[in-house]
Amino acid sequence: MQWTKVLGLGLGAAALLGLGIILGHFAIPKKANSPAPQDLDLEILETVMEQLDAHRIRENLRELSREPHLASSPRDEDLVQLLLQRWKDPESGLDSAEASTYEVLLSFPSQEQPNVVDIVGPTGGIIHSCHRTEENVTGEQGGPDVVQPYAAYAPSGTPQAVNAAKHGIAGVLVYTDPADINDGLSSPDETFPNSWYLPPSGVERGSYYEYFGDPLTPYLPAVPSSFRVDLANVSGFPPIPTQPIGFQDARDLLCNLNGTLAPATWQGALGCHYRLGPGFRADGDFPADSQVNVSVYNRLELRNSSNVLGIIRGAVEPDRYVLYGNHRDSWVHGAVDPSSGTAILLELSRVLGTLLKKGTWRPRRSIVFASWGAEEFGLIGSTEFTEEFFNKLQERTVAYINVDISVFANATLRVQGTPPVQSVVFSATKEIRSPGPGDLSIYDNWIRYFNRSSPVYGLVPSLGSLGAGSDYAPFIHFLGISSMDIAYTYDRSKTSARIYPTYHTAFDTFDYVDKFLDPGFSSHQAVARTAGSVILRLSDSFFLPLKVSDYSETLRSFLQAAQQDLGALLEQHSISLGPLVTAVEKFEAEAAALGQRISTLQKGSPDPLQVRMLNDQLMLLERTFLNPRAFPEERYYSHVLWAPRTGSVVTFPGLSNACSRARDTASGSEAWAEVQRQLSIVVTALEGAAATLRPVADL
Amino acid sequence: MQWTKVLGLGLGAAALLGLGIILGHFAIPKKANSPAPQDLDLEILETVMEQLDAHRIRENLRELSREPHLASSPRDEDLVQLLLQRWKDPESGLDSAEASTYEVLLSFPSQEQPNVVDIVGPTGGIIHSCHRTEENVTGEQGGPDVVQPYAAYAPSGTPQAVNAAKHGIAGVLVYTDPADINDGLSSPDETFPNSWYLPPSGVERGSYYEYFGDPLTPYLPAVPSSFRVDLANVSGFPPIPTQPIGFQDARDLLCNLNGTLAPATWQGALGCHYRLGPGFRADGDFPADSQVNVSVYNRLELRNSSNVLGIIRGAVEPDRYVLYGNHRDSWVHGAVDPSSGTAILLELSRVLGTLLKKGTWRPRRSIVFASWGAEEFGLIGSTEFTEEFFNKLQERTVAYINVDISVFANATLRVQGTPPVQSVVFSATKEIRSPGPGDLSIYDNWIRYFNRSSPVYGLVPSLGSLGAGSDYAPFIHFLGISSMDIAYTYDRSKTSARIYPTYHTAFDTFDYVDKFLDPGFSSHQAVARTAGSVILRLSDSFFLPLKVSDYSETLRSFLQAAQQDLGALLEQHSISLGPLVTAVEKFEAEAAALGQRISTLQKGSPDPLQVRMLNDQLMLLERTFLNPRAFPEERYYSHVLWAPRTGSVVTFPGLSNACSRARDTASGSEAWAEVQRQLSIVVTALEGAAATLRPVADL
C-alpha cells in the first residue's frame, strides 16, 4: 500500500498496492455436545495460550510456502484442499468447513510474450534489456510457477520514449529504491540470502487496480450468474502500460538519465545523482538519443477463486459471529505475505478444534475462520463474501479480526483497529509474555514502541487506523463491523525499510522467515496468542468486550482538529461547528452512561436476555456510522469516520475532504454547500449513534 | 394518491397527492412495576377488545376535528398539546411522551393575494371568475382557518391561455369530476349535507411535491442545523403554476371549450361533451377568443412542525419496538383524514395506558405511538423521524402499523401490508365481530369483499401492497420494516367514488362522519380493535407473529409473471431467468424449514434467548430486501420488491421497469445491461434473504 519511487520515461508515477484475497461457504452444524459456559473461562484461555505451538506454526509455514500459490493457480487450489482437510479433521477440525468459489477478473502476464523493458538505440536496435525474471539466488526463484514481475491490471501496450513529452506520459516503470527498502544497501553480499535485504534483481509485484473487489461486479457477488460490467466501462484500471523492475535495472536507466537534477527528496541510494531527463547523458552507457521501450502483454482472465470458511458453532448465541480471516493467495511463495498469517490461522483452528472435538469447550458465540482468495488482486475474495452475505454479516458479526502478514519483524506488536476493539486487545496482551529477552508482557513491550497519551487512560499503546491494505477493508468500510489487524513489526530505530524488503518478490520464502524475520517463530507465536486470546474473549465473554466509549476519544480529537485547523475558515464562510460540538458531547455522555449501566449490571446477576440487549448495543454501534449515501464517488466506503481522507486536516474525512476542495472557492459555491452537507452527515451519524447508546426504551 | 381529471388550458395534467404528517421525541422510562408475561395473554386481549369504546372514539373525533388544523397552524400545535396531555395522564397515559419539532419547508397560498382563476375576454376584462373558496354550506367552510384551495408546492405565476400551445403548457387546472367522485351526481340537493357526495364548490387540496420528506433536507433530519439544499436545486416541485377548482367551476370552463371531442374515457358527468380546445365555443357562454387566466401566489415557508411520540416500555425486550402511527395535520377540519385515525390512536393509547397505569399489564416489547406532523405536504414528519433515527429504528423495530383514514366507508376491512404481517392480521380479525348485521367476524366479512386464492391457504382475504400514500412509506421503503395500513372501506357494488367524496375539502367534517360515513362509529371501533389486537400480538407474543414464509407466495407470483410475460423477451436477448428461479426456490425452502423449526420449538419449552434469536431472523427478514444502491434515481426507495413499478408486468419492480425501458432497444444496449443488473440485484437480495433464514450457525 505504499508508494515507491517511480522512474519516469516519458512516463509518470503509480502506486504499488499490496493486496490479496480468499472465500468459503457454509455447512450444517452438529448438535451441541459440550458444556455452555456463562462467561470467558480463564482455564480454557490458559490452555489455548499454552498449546499454540511455535514449532507447528513453523511447519505450517513450510508447507504453505513450499510452492508459489498465486490466486487461482493449481497450488492455490491445493491449499484450499489442505485447509478443508485440516478443518474437517475428526480430531482437530471445526464443526464444518466449506470452500466457495467466485468467478473473478484477474490479470496475468502472458507466458508466451513476457513483458519487456529495453533500451533501444538510435538505429532501432536493442542495446540493453532489463531482467525479465529475478535472479535464481536460492533455487526458488526459477521455474514456471514463479510469475514474472508485473503490474496487475496494467493494460498492454508498447510505449517507447524517454521523458519525450512531459505531459504525454505513455507508460510507467516502477521500482523500489534501496534507500526506501534496504536501508541504503544494494550489493549482493549485503542482501538476501546474506541478510533480509532485497537482492538487486528483486521486483515488487502488485495490483494496480484502484478499488477493491472483483472489477466486473461492484456491489454484486461474483457468482457466475451475476451481471458483469462491460470491460469498456470498468473504472479503476491504470490507463497506461506499467511495469515494475528491480533496482539493479533501475540503476542502469536512472543513473544514465540526462536533464536537471531531481528534487532532493527524490534522490535515492543507487549511487548516482538522479536526473529528470529528457534523454540520456552523452557520457553515459547509452547513446544520448536512445529510448526506453516498455512492452506489456498482461491479459485479463476470468478465473475461479475460492474462499474457505470453517465454523465453530456457538453454544449459546450461535447467531453472533466472531470472524477471523486471512488471505491465502500469494504473489510467489509468499512465506511472509500471507502465509505467516495462514500458518497462525491453521494453528489457532487446530488448538480450538482439538478442544472442541474433545468436548472440553464450545464457545458461547460462533467463531468463523476464513481463508480468502485473490486478496493480492484487490481484496477480492473477502469483498465478494461481504457482497453475497451483506445483511447476515452486518446483523450478526461481533467483530472481524484480520491477521495477514503476521510478522513483518520481531520487535513489537502492532495493531490497527477501530476504537471499540482497543480494550480487548489491551486485556489480551497484558496477559501474554512478549518474545525476546526480559519478562515483559506483549502490552508492556508494545507501549515502548507505539504509544500515546490518552486523556482517559494516560499512556497506552496506540492503535493505528484501518486503511484498505488487507481484507478488513470491506468489513469496516462497507459493512461497518468493528475490525482489527494484528501483526508483529519493526523496531524503527533499526530499519527504515518501507516494508520487509522481499515483499511481493520471489525472495519471500520460508528460509527468509526462518533465518531473518523470526528465527524460532516466537513472534509468530506471540501473534497467535494475541489473536487467540482476542477470539476467545470476543466469543466467550458474557458481556461483549467492545468498549464503545473509547470512540469518544477519537471523536473528541477529530472535533478538536476541526476546531483548530478549520474553525476560522468555516467561520469565515458562516459555517458553525456548534452542532458538531453538541453531537460529540451527546455521544460522550451516552457512551459514559452506558458504561455505567454495564458496570452496575456486572455487579448483579443479569439474565442472558438483558445482557444480549446490551451486547446488541455494543455490537451495532459501529453500524451507526455507516451512510451509503455519504460518499457516492468512493466505492464501498460508507463509514463516515474512516473513509479515505485526502484533506490534510486529521478530522472527519468527509469534512476534511470537502473543506480541502472548498478552500479556494467563494462562499456560496457548490463546494461550500458540500462542506455543509458533509458536516450534517457527520452530525446526523453521531446523533444517531448516541441515540442507539441510550437506554433502549428511551427510543 | 389518485389521478383526477385535468382540465387543459394551454395546460397539462398533474397528480393529486393525498399525503400528510406529525413527530415526537423520547423520554426516560420508569421502573418495571408490572408482571412480565411470557406470552400473549388472551384475557388482556379480551379486556382491550371490550374496552375500546365507539363513543369515546366519536368524542375524540369531535374534538380533533373541531377546528381546521393545517400542518404547523396554531390549532395543529394545540393538538400536539392535547396528545401530550392524554399520553401523560396519570390514570391512562403512557410511560412517557414527548413532542419533537422539525423545521420544514411547507407551501401555502398567500392570504393577501388569493389564487384566482378568471376568464378574460378579448378586450382584457374579466368576464367570469371561479370561486376562491368553497360554499359555506354548514357554517364550517368559512373563516380564516379554512385554507383556500391550492396545490401545495406549485410555483406562483400568472399564465393565461386556452390550449394555446399544445406543447407549451403554461399552467394546470385540476378538478374532480362527479363521474369519478360522486357516482355521477352533481346537484346541491344530491350532495353534502344531503348525502355524502361532494358539493359543487368542493375542491380537493393536495401536495404536488413528487417525493416525500422535507424537500430541503433529503436523507437528513430537518433539524435547524442540517444542511439545506438551495431552493434552485430542489427537484420534485411542479414546474408550472397549478390550481385545483371545484367541478362547478370546471363545468363553466369545460362545457364551453371548443375543438375536437375528448376521448371517451375522458368524458365525465358535467352534463356536456368534453372537448379538447383550443379556444371556446362560438355559441358558448364566453367570447370564442376569451382566455383563462390562472394566478397562483403560493409561498414557500420554513415552518416548525411537530411529531408526538409516546412509549410503553417493554417489560422483557424493551429494545424491540412495535410502532403505531398516524399523522395529525389535516387540510381543513380533516374529520376523516386524518382525525378518524387519530381518534382511534387516542382510544387505543387510553385503553392500553389504563391497564399499564393500573399495573395490570406491561407488554413484553415496547410499544411506540406516533402522531406525525405535515403528512399532507409529503409524509414529512414520519420521514424526518426515520432520517433522524435510521439505525436505531432499523435495528429494533418489529413492525410499523399505520392507521391514517380509519374509515373510508363502513363495508369491510381493507389492509395493505407486506406478506409477513398477513398472518397476524388474519389471527386478529378472526376473533373480532364485524360491525353491521349478522354475526360475522371481521375476517369473514372481509373475505367477501377482497379475496384471492392462495396456493397455500386456499381462499383468503387479499392484502393490498403498500405504495407511498401515507406515513408507512419511509418505514417500508427506506428502512425495510414490515409495515401495514389498516382501514374500513367501501362496498364497491354501491359506489365507484375514487375516494370518500369530501376528501381534502372543507366538507370533511365531524358531522359528515357522524351522519354518513360511520353513524354509531362501529366501523371505527372495528378498526381500533383490529389495530389493538395486532399491536398486542406483536408486542406480547413470545414468538413474533410475523410469518416470513408468506413472502414465498409473492416471490413465486413475481417469478411466474416474469417467466410468462418477460421470459420470451429476455431469452431473445440471451438473459436467463434460471438464477432467479433458483433463488426463489431457495427462499421457499429456507422459509419452510424455518417454519418447521419454529413449530418444533413451540412444542418444547425453548429458552428466551433461543426465541430471541429466532425472532431476530423473523424481524430482520424484511431488511434483507433493502439495497440502497438499487434505484439511485428513486429517492428513499431501497426495497427491491416494493419500489415503484412503472413497467406493466407485475413482477420485481427493478426488472419490470428495466425491461419496459429496454424493450425497444437492441441487445447489448445500456438498457439491456440495466436489465441484467436489476436481475442480479434481485437474485442477490433473495439469496441473501434465504441465507438469513437458514439455521444461524450455518452462516
From TrEMBL, chains A, B:
Gene3D superfamilies: 3.50.30.30, Transferrin receptor-like, dimerisation domain, Zn peptidases. The gene is NAALADL1. Belongs to the peptidase M28 family. M28B subfamily. The keyword Zinc applies. It comes from the Eukaryota. GO terms for molecular function: aminopeptidase activity; metal ion binding; metallopeptidase activity. This is Aminopeptidase NAALADL1. It is a single-pass type II membrane protein. It comes from Pan troglodytes. Keywords: Aminopeptidase, Calcium, Disulfide bond, Glycoprotein, Hydrolase, Metal-binding, Metalloprotease, Protease, Signal-anchor, Transmembrane, Zinc.
